[in-house]
Amino acid sequence: MKTPLTGILPVAPTPFHDDGRVDEEGMRRVLDCIIDQGVDAICILANYSEQFVLSDEERATLMRISLEHVAGRVPVIVTISHFSTGIVVDRAKAAQALGASMVMMMPPYHGVGLVPSEAGIYEQFRAVSDAISIPIMVQDAPLSGCQMSVPLLARMARELENVSYFKMEMPFAADKLAALIEAGGKDIIGPFDGEEAVTLLADLDAGCTGTMTSGLQCEHIGVIIRSYLAGDKDAALAQWTKCLPLINHENRQCGLRACKVVMKEGGVIGSDHVRHPLKPMTPRTRERLLQLAGDLDLIALKWGK
């Protein structure tokens, strides 16, 4: 990428048939629907893509299908997280070879009892940076159980050539973003937030330049970021206020199921199946989700009809 990536970079859900098989044609339709929401990039194989229930073969197939189908219309970010450094490096090389614009990775972890030292975290990111020539986004999220300090993150940005984007999802993300931007300076090319944009205004105030949400309401959240970065903070606040009921319901009640439920209702995919041990959404939660989605007239709610 010749210019820094900013804006809205949603995670694409992985669609399954009702029997749990990967829906390859549904994956293509998901990508088209998200692109039609006016996004700046798409992330695949992330946690909200249910990467943790995919086999290695399924993962490779979905990466190939996604990169071939998007075909350069927007940049594609491929998530490569794994505890094994060798596997992460192999995933990074494969993503670059297929045309990914960026890779995203969490620090290595395998439950709270198997978390490496900061030296181990640094060494894994260094191995990936040495193996590829595309940017790396560091995902700093509670799921890993790893505490990555601002000095460590700033050091990685300063010393590892391709580590330049950061997705902050930890508690008090705005303060950590501000501290990282101050510590890392010009080496922090892409400070981003996540968590469905529930803290987006605070994170924009802290200096973030984009967000990685789900694919649920990108056309609306993108307006927040574009307004803010253009200097119209009042418009950004008004738009965030409009989006906040759905943002909050997705973040606190639905999780990764929200996008799939809305996309099924909108004819994008044929099933909102999530793989066990994940459970379907309750009818009560689903009803409120669809009501809030309808209030915003979401593209995903009507795309396939």
UniProtKB/TrEMBL annotation:
Top-level taxon: Bacteria
A matching Pfam family: DHDPS
UniProt-listed SUPFAM superfamilies: Aldolase
GO cellular component: cytosol
CDD domains per record: DHDPS-like
Keyword DNA-binding attached: no
Family: Belongs to the DapA family.
Name this protein carries in UniProt: Dihydrodipicolinate synthetase
